[in-house]
Design brief:
There is one protein chain. This protein has 208 residues and is mostly helical. It contains 10 helices and no strands. It is elongated, with a radius of gyration of 20 Å.
C-alpha cells in the first residue's frame, strides 16, 4: 500500500477507521464461513470475498487464517462473558437465579445470532486452545460469584465444574441449532443453569 493511500482520508473516512472497519468485516466473515461451511473450507479468498474486501487487505490486520480465527473467537467469547457477568450482577443473590441469568444471557445472544453459536462450538483445530482459555475465564468468574452466594469454590474446583457444564451445554446447543434436538431456548437455559447451580452447591471437593 502506498504512503499516500495509507494516510489520506477516503470519502471523509480516516485510514485507521477504514482499516478497523475492514478488520471487523473480516472477523464477521470468518464467523459466517466457519459456521456455514466448516474450517476446511475457510480460506483467505473465501473470507475476503464474504467480507467484501480484496484479499490483500486481509494481511493488513492478520498474519494468517489462524490469527483471524482465534482473534474472532477471543473477542466474541469476551463479549458473551461480559454479558453473562452483567446479567449475574443484576440477578438476585441466589445461586440458581445467578446461574439462570448468566446462561440466559448467552443463550439469548446465540438465539439472536445463530451463526455465532455455530462458530463458538466449531471443531476447528486452531480453536482448541482458545476454548480452554474461555472455560478458564468462565471458571474464574464462577469462583468469584460463588463467594457472593455463600458457596466458596477455589479456581480448580470452579474449572472442574465449568468443564462438565460446558461439555453438556455444547451438545445441547449443537442439537438446538442443527435441529436434531427438540428443545426450546428457555428449556436449554434451565437445564444448563440447573446443572451449574447443582454442581456448584453439591459436587464434593475432589482430592488431588
Amino acid at each position: 500500500m502506498s504512503e499516500p493511500e495509507a494516510t489520506r482520508a477516503y470519502r471523509g473516512v480516516a485510514p485507521a477507521d477504514r482499516r478497523a472497519e475492514r478488520r471487523k468485516r473480516l472477523q464477521n466473515a470468518v464467523i459466517d464461513v466457519v459456521a456455514d461451511e466448516g474450517w476446511s473450507a475457510t480460506t483467505v479468498r473465501k473470507v475476503a470475498a464474504t467480507a467484501g474486501v480484496g484479499p490483500r487487505f486481509f494481511y493488513e490486520s492478520f498474519t494468517d487464517m489462524t490469527d483471524l480465527l482465534t482473534t474472532a473467537y477471543d473477542e466474541l467469547g469476551a463479549t458473551l462473558l461480559e454479558r453473562a457477568v452483567d446479567a449475574i450482577a443484576a440477578a438476585p443473590d441466589e445461586l440458581h437465579a445467578k446461574a439462570r441469568a448468566a446462561v440466559g444471557a448467552i443463550v439469548g445472544a446465540v438465539e439472536r445470532n445463530p451463526q455465532q453459536g455455530r462458530f463458538l462450538i466449531s471443531d476447528a483445530p486452531p480453536l482448541a486452545e482458545r476454548k480452554s482459555a474461555f472455560i478458564r475465564s468462565a471458571a474464574d468468574e464462577l469462583a468469584k460469584q460463588s463467594d457472593a452466594v455463600g458457596t466458596r469454590l477455589d479456581s480448580r474446583q470452579a474449572e472442574l465444574r465449568a468443564v462438565v457444564v460446558m461439555a453438556g451445554a455444547v451438545e445441547l446447543v449443537r442439537g438446538w441449532l442443527d435441529g436434531t434436538l427438540d428443545i426450546r431456548p428457555d428449556e436449554l437455559t434451565e437445564i444448563v443453569a440447573s446443572t451449574l447451580s447443582t454442581l456448584t452447591a453439591h459436587m464434593p471437593t475432589i482430592g488431588r
